[in-house]
Input
Amino acid sequence: AERLAGLRAEGRSVFVDMGADWCVTCKVNERAVLHTDAFRDLLKRSNAVLMTGDWTNADPAISAFLKDYRAVGVPLYVVFRAGENGSGHVLPAVLTQGIVEDALAPR
Output
């Protein structure tokens, strides 16, 4: 939470990826989108930071973040756009490159 607040205060966009090793949907999203050159390029173009939380062993800080977003589990993807206040934008559980490009596009 502290790192997220700091990045937002710097005016950076932040893409939060909460997942777990046992999460099949998380692994599909990683292969299809999150671990691709296209996604890395998108982060650079958007001046965005990827923050990843590993809930494999039920970390209390990640559990609190999930609770804040009323998520019953992972995956949970939240985008905080540069210059915007508020709780961020929750993305669908299944990602596409188009979904993440739209989420990080300047408004």
User: Anything to note?
Assistant: The first strand starts at residue 13 and ends at 19.
